[in-house]
Amino acid sequence: MSGSPSWQQRLFLLVEWLKGFRYIKFGMVGASGTVVNLVVLYTAHEYLFRAIESPGSKPYASLALAIAVATVNNFSWNRLWTWADRLHQNDERTSKKPQARGVLLRQFGLYTLASWFGIALQYGLTLWLTNFLHYMLANVIAIVIASVSNYLANDRLTFRQGSPR
Fold first, then answer.
1. How far apart are CA 65 and CA 98, in angstroms?
2. Is 133 left (phi over 0), alpha (psi -120 to 50) or beta?
3. Does some domain include residue 56?
4. CA distance 42 to 141
5. Number of structural domains, the chain?
6. Is residue 144 part of a domain?
7. 164 in a domain, yes or no?
8. How far apart are CA 24 and CA 158, in angstroms?
9. Mean pLDDT calculated for residue range 15-26
10. Which of 20-24, 26-30, 61-65 has the lowest mean pLDDT?
C-alpha cells in the first residue's frame, strides 16, 4: 500500500487550501480599511478635531471616527467580495428575495457585534501604544493584532455558511 493520501484526505486538504483565499481577501479588504482608517484618523486629528485634540494629545475622538468609517468600509467590501459566495448560496437556499434593507442592517449589526472585540482591542492598544510610538504607527500595529479576531468572529457569526440571511 502506498503512502499517498486518500481522495477524502486530498479533498480535505484542497478545501483547507481554498479557505486560505478567503483570509487573503479579508486581508486585502482589511488593508483598504487600514488606509481609510489612517486617512480619517490623520485628517480628523490634525484638522477636523483640532480644537479638542491638539496634535500632541491622544486622538480619542478622531480614532473613534476613523474606526467607525473603516468598519463601514470593511463591512461593505467583505459582504460584496470576501463572503459573497455564502450570501448567494443562502439566498438560493431560501428561494426568497429577502428584504434588502432589513438584511443589510441585520448583517451590519452582526458584523459590528462580531467585530466589537477587535474594535475595542484596536482602540485600547492604539491609545496605550501612543505612550511609546507615534499615533499612526500605534494604530497600524493595533489593527494588525485585532484583524485575526475580526476574521474569525465574522467568519463564524456574520457570514457563517448555511444560515439564511
1. 31
2. beta
3. yes
4. 16
5. 1
6. yes
7. no
8. 18
9. 78
10. 20-24
Q: Is the pLDDT of residue 160 over 70?
A: yes
Are 154 and 114 in contact, with CB atoms under 8 Å apart?
yes
12 within a domain of the structure (yes/no): no
Examine the pLDDT at 164 and tell me if it is beyond 60: no
In whole angstroms, what is the distance from residue 46 CA to residue 20 CA?
A: 38
Give me 149's grid cell.
479576531
Cell representation of residue 88? 448567494
Q: How many distinct helices (H) and strands (E) make up the chain? A: 5, 0
By the 8 A CB rule, do 140 and 125 touch?
Answer: no
User: HSE of 74 in the Cβ direction (CA atoms, 13 Å)?
Assistant: 31
Q: Which amino acid is at 156?
A: R
The whole domain housing 39 covers 20-158
Tally of residues, the chain: 165
